[in-house]
Amino acid sequence: MNTTTITVMGATGHTGAKIAQRLLKSGAKVRALGRTESKLAALRSAGAEVRTGDVADAGFLAEAFRGADAAYTLLATDRHAPDYAERQAREGEAIAGAVRDSGVSHVVALSSLGANLHEATGVIAGLHAQEGRLQRIAGINLLLLRPASFFENFFEALDVVRHMGVLADSVAPDIAMPMVAADDIAAVAAKALMERDWSGIAVQELLGPRDLSQAEVARILGQRIGQPDLHYVQLPDADMADALVGAGLSASFADLYVEMTRAFNANRVHPLAGCATRSCTPTTFEHFAGELAGAYAALLSCHKLVKTN
Ligand SMILES: NC(=O)c1ccc[n+]([C@@H]2O[C@H](COP(=O)([O-])OP(=O)(O)OC[C@H]3O[C@@H](n4cnc5c(N)ncnc54)[C@H](OP(=O)(O)O)[C@@H]3O)[C@@H](O)[C@H]2O)c1
Predict the structure, then answer these.
(1) CA distance linking residue 229 with residue 257, whole number of Å
(2) CA 222 to chain CA centroid, nearest Å
(3) What does the domain layout of the chain look like in residue ranges?
(4) Residue 279: band (very low, low, confident or very high) from pLDDT cuts 50, 70, 90
(5) What is the 8-class DSSP label of residue 232?
(6) Which of 15, 18, 30, 35 is the best mutation target for the ligand 1 pocket, counting ligand atoms within 8 Å of the beta carbon and taking the most?
């Protein structure tokens, strides 16, 4: 019997790394794509075939997709890109061209909740456009995954918690929104890539077990890190954009980010299908907060080490 071969884009990222690991455990041959050889070393040791190249290089991608039974695709867009939307479009064209040229029959594509909307959703509008590019490929079997915001986004907030003692963003404090663990996205993606049990175009929303507001996230996280008074502060859009640029991200990304949070605040980005069993993923934020607490403790001890040295 032939071994299943699956190509995984972004194999060092939040979803791709976990998908690649799951596929290897299931016995698949994995072609793990990324841009940094050293970051792919662990997957190579675990048995993956590692390929490095740029996601905007259609030739590189077509070679990586050719002969595979299925491919996991995503827009890997670097948040430093000077024109984020243009870069999303360039990567999207390359991916669609490569899918077409390689003839790979099944594609599981990472999209986002809100990708049904074509404008005024910031970074999500680029994913809407990418859904369209892929859907137009004749004969494709395409599963579009539309996850909510990842729990993993809060890893990036930990440094602000350490410095400022608050959780801060431009999202309104009390709007409850779905949020999901990347590992739950990976579980659904890996199963679909192995089983390839759909045909034509399919859409799957991926929501956490329950909706959460930023204020609630701050409360749960605060308890786990031993700062029960941790609270959430909503920043004005301009301050949020300035903070992102101050952290080194491009102004273009910052503008699209706050546009996305405006769409969240206006309740324009929400599930369409409701919480069917397959949409509501199992990992709770309360459980995931344990991982965040571990990372926070490591951050504190690293900071102490630097101070004493
Ligand atoms: N975060 C959320 O809440 C959320 C929600 C819904 C949808 N999404 C979508 O999820 C996607 C990102 O997925 P993710 O979080 O799994 O990935 P990620 O953690 O952002 O990682 C990106 C991956 O792509 C690689 N990469 C970056 N630039 C590259 C380039 N120029 N050429 C080749 N590889 C490159 C990275 O490699 P290195 O390790 O070398 O950097 C890494 O493996 C985005 O399209 C985003 O819009 C995110």
Answers:
(1) 27
(2) 24
(3) 5-150+180-206
(4) confident
(5) E
(6) 35
Distance of alpha carbon 2 from the chain centroid: 31
| Ligand 1 centre distance from Cα of residue 226 (Å) | 31
Judge if the beta carbon of residue 79 lies within 6 A of ligand 1. Answer: no
pLDDT tens-place string over residues 143-166: 999 999 999 999 999 999 999 999
Ligand 1 centroid to 19 CA: how many Å?
Answer: 13
Ligand 1 contact, 78 CB (< 6 A): yes
Q: Which residue has the tokens 């929104």?
A: 177
In angstroms, rounded to a whole number, what is the distance separating the alpha carbons of residues 6 and 17?
A: 13
Ligand 1 pocket test, pick from 8, 9, 12 with the greatest ligand atom count within 8 Å of Cβ, gives 12
Q: What is the pLDDT of residues 75-117, one digit of tens each?
A: 999 999 999 999 999 999 999 999 999 999 999 999 999 999 9
Element (H, E) at 303: helix 285-308
| Superfamily of structural domain 5-150+180-206 | NAD(P)-binding Rossmann-like Domain (3.40.50.720)
